[in-house]
Amino acid sequence: MNQKLPKKFYLQNDVVSLAQKLLGKVLCTHILGNFTSGIITETEAYAGMGDRACHAYGGKKTNRNQIMYENGGLAYVYLCYGLHHLFNVVTNQKGQADAILIRAIIPLDGIDVIKQRRKVKTKLPPYLSGPGVVTSALGINLGHYGKNLRGNEIWIEDRKIEIAQENIKIGPRIGIDYAGADAKLPWRFVYNLKF
DNA sequence: ATGTCGATTTGCT
DNA sequence: GCAAATCGACATA
To answer: How many Cα neighbours within 13 Å face the side chain of A64?
Structure first.
């Protein structure tokens, strides 16, 4: 059961198809004694230095994004708009700055903890949408920057959840109008949920 | 050294 | 429907 994704998975070089493969995988965190997890339902691919929407576009390297240049399988957490933590999965080999942004999940384990973190009084929404929401629900923060995704604080499991091709919606990425033509690339993958 | 803007969410008018 | 919140990266001087 509960199989962590192998290192090999993260080292693949096709970040776009990897982003699609992450749909249906389970993102888990074990933080301060609280275990929470959720099925990944929305991802966006950021294709390193060749992608204008990527932080590493043109080979840019800063303290913030340097982790993207490392080997795949690490967590790239960063602060956006000064208040939201966005969680990314670093992929590809060292020297390549590819990453996948996790935008939405369906809560699985630790619902009570998630409710508390999200300050929900009664019922939790069936799924959590929005990159900042995902991190707050799972308790991800800047302390997870650069963490190995096969460690015991944060990792991704393959629970063999089947995703039908026809339930995957593909479209342009969000909030990156500044990226010009690259903003139109169909690199956003949404698992169309219908329960 | 200072100013603008961003891979956004939330709450109020 | 719109504006506030708020920090790091990057451009300008």
So the answer is: 12
**pLDDT tens digits for A93-144?**
999 999 999 999 999 999 999 999 998 877 778 889 999 999 999 999 999 9
Distance CA A85, CA A14 (A): 25
User: What pTM did the predictor assign?
Assistant: 0.94
Q: Which nucleotides of C are covered by protein (CB under 7 A)?
A: 5-10
Please report, in angstroms and rounded to a whole number, the separation of the first and last CA atoms in chain A. Answer: 23
Alpha carbon of A164 to those of A20, A75, A106, A134: distances in Å? 12, 27, 17, 23
A81 touches strand C (CB under 7 A): yes
Query: Helix or strand or coil: residue A21?
Result: helix
